[in-house]
Amino acid sequence: DAGVTQSPTHLIKTRGQQVTLRCSPISGHKSVSWYQQVLGQGPQFIFQYYEKEERGRGNFPDRFSARQFPNYSSELNVNALLLGDSALYLCASSLHPDRNYGYTFGSGTRLTVV
Amino acid sequence: QQQVKQSPQSLIVQKGGISIINCAYENTAFDYFPWYQQFPGKGPALLIAIRPDVSEKKEGRFTISFNKSAKQFSLHIMDSQPGDSATYFCAASISSGNTPLVFGKGTRLSVIA
After folding, report:
1. How far is the C-alpha of A1 from the C-alpha of B89, rounded, in Å?
2. What gap in Å lies between CA B18 and CA A34, rounded to an integer?
3. Is the dihedral of CA B25, B27, B31, B36 positive or negative?
């Protein structure tokens, strides 16, 4: 069984640019969550989606947006990139948004903003 | 506001020794406390988790101790091995309802031979 798949694995962008990160959940998992992990810190919650609907949002600016597709895959978009957006972006999937004890994380996308 | 405080930030343990990582939480509504292990270049992987209805849970060499009154929980790694060298994160959440995991800042464990 494939785990949570994220693409790309690494990305370098310039300040002010826009970026789209992609996530494919484990087969059968309908909930996808996005976390930002800054170097040396624990993951911080950005978004949770279930059945294409946003179910939760962390304390991140409106430059961050996301969506979930009918096949339960998800995209995270970040506009007007800042140097501080440099981080590992993690996607986690679970069967249901209320069952976060079933979280499985992907390996993440390492975003570097220069 | 940091809801889960983790210590120490880094830890060096001799092979065969016991590694102990501590966490404290603030929100008394939390009822699910997992520990994650993260290797460089990988995402966090669930190691072991506990709910507040028990004071201890053991899986192999890994044990969680939980003190509800003190709002603290800890991870013990017995017979630590070089392969255990990784970053460990504690986390907390409310298991029912739409509540995300809140993570500690992590502990970098190095097990030396």
Report:
1. 26
2. 33
3. negative
Search chain A and give the residue with CA nearest B46.
A104
Question: How far apart, in whole angstroms, are the C-alpha atoms of residue A50 and residue A32?
Answer: 7
CA distance B94 to chain A (A): 9
pLDDT digits (tens, 9 = 90+) for B8-50: 999 999 999 999 999 999 999 999 999 999 999 899 999 999 9
Q: Which of B38, B51, B94, B96 to mutate to test the interface with A (most CBs of A within 10 A)?
A: B38
| A7 and chain B in contact, CB less than 8 A | no
Q: Token pair for residue A31?
A: 């909930």
Q: Residue A87 forms beta bridges with which residues?
A: A111
Type of residue numbered B18: I
State whether A43 and B96 contact (CB < 8 Å).
no
Nearest chain B CA: its distance from A67 CA (Å): 17
Question: Phi and psi dihedrals of A101, rounded to 5?
Answer: -75, -10
**What residue in A sits closest to B33 (Cα-Cα)?**
A101
Q: How far apart are the first and last CA of chain B?
A: 38
Quick one: which of B24, B65, B25, B6 has its CA closest to A42?
B6
Nearest to B101 by CA among A52, A11, A51, A90: A90
Q: How many Å separate Cα A39 from the centre of its chain?
A: 16
pLDDT given for residue A76 in this prediction: 98
